[in-house]
Amino acid sequence: MLGKALIIGAGGVASVVVHKCCQNPDVFEEICIASRTIAKCEALKNKLDGGQTKISVAQVDADKTEEVIELIKNFGPDVVINVALPYQDLTIMDACLATGVHYVDTANYEPPDTPKFEYKWQWAYREKFEKAGITALLGSGFDPGVTGVFTAYAQKHHFDEIHSIDIVDANAGDHGYPFATNFNPEINIREITANGRYYEEGKWIETPPLSHKKEYDLPEIGPKNIYLLYHEELESLAVNIKGVKRIRFWMTFSDNYLNHLKVLENVGMTSIEPIQFNGQEIIPLQFLQAILPDPASLGPRTKGKTNIGCIIQGTKDGKPKTYYVYNVCDHEECYAEVGSQAISYTTGVPAMIGAMMIIKGIWNKPGVYNVEEFDPDPFMDALNKHGLPWQEDHSPTLLD
Ligand code: NDP
């Protein structure tokens, strides 16, 4: 099955998507890399041109639906892979609706002024996508993304009932800088400085930022401090995994990272409230982003591994059952393969696989869906094949 993909964005994640599409010319016959800064698209094209996948580039401001519509009309893709920023989700979905083209992203829509991490705006498009006969696949990165596929796989093959899900996202990578974020700093810092939240017995329980801490001994990484955060897949899993009683999300942070973040927060650098500076309005967090290392530049410097997975408890055949499914990814191996570190790699590979599922017609039903709403098996097979092999543990240590 051959198809054409329009990739919007040319940052860290987009670079991996482009590499991975080019590794699969039997599916991605042609791609167009479109972003705000065309030089970044051209740099990617120059790196990968000459293979079987035909590559073109375009300049687009994806905040403007009309520009995206025109680009889609000119290029004629089967699917749009949105790996720009969450602020562009709705304008790109509108353009897909106007042109009848499938849509894939890796992060929920965010209004620029308030961090929300909610699906409501995108779920509101369900009927429109159904009527248009096209698929919107939401959150096809790693988390959200593979964590939802892992959960759907556990539900299909290992449980009659799932009672609790703990998603643990660990990064034991070291880039050698005193402080840097592994993906877009603005999105990353907004996520971490927000209140924590988890789902229990039908309710959402809020916790102050980074106030819940535990130690967990992760396979191939070792013991790490993990902190409870809210993460967007909790919202869709709470709806889609019937009968689940508790869902939590945990992420590792080093003491050094948290100390830097605390200071930046205390001095107001993580604020998204605009301020006046030298007669100009600036947003402190955006200014901070401008002075921090570009996540794309961390690739050659980062050593160590990531481990992201789901620890699940429930019942099977009337007996209690536990199951842990996870992927370990090596930063240096990712860099050797596609020139990016593991954070971009673990997001870009599932974005490519999501688009592949749609082009091949395997995950193709009109409407707006999160990844866990599809059959997980073909996606799980594709993870093993395309660089994110997963492992299982049937008696993991549990988080109390
Ligand atoms: P980067 O900041 O590296 O790249 C973002 C790209 O989007 C840049 O090329 C930028 O262009 C482009 N862009 C921004 N605004 C526009 C616009 N209005 N029109 C066109 N292009 C635009 O981000 P990442 O690659 O790190 O992240 C990409 C996405 O992946 C984000 O949405 C992020 O939240 C998500 N993500 C998801 C994860 C998951 O596991 N689900 C994990 C990590 C990230 P320019 O170069 O001109 O600024």
TrEMBL record:
Its EC number is 1.5.1.7. Residues 6-137 form the Saccharopine dehydrogenase NADP binding domain. Keywords: Oxidoreductase. One of its GO terms (molecular function) is saccharopine dehydrogenase (NAD+, L-lysine-forming) activity. InterPro entries: NAD(P)-bd_dom_sf, Sacchrp_dh-like_C, Sacchrp_dh_NADP-bd. It holds the Pfam family Sacchrp_dh_NADP. The keyword Oxidoreductase applies. This is Saccharopine dehydrogenase (NAD+, L-lysine-forming).
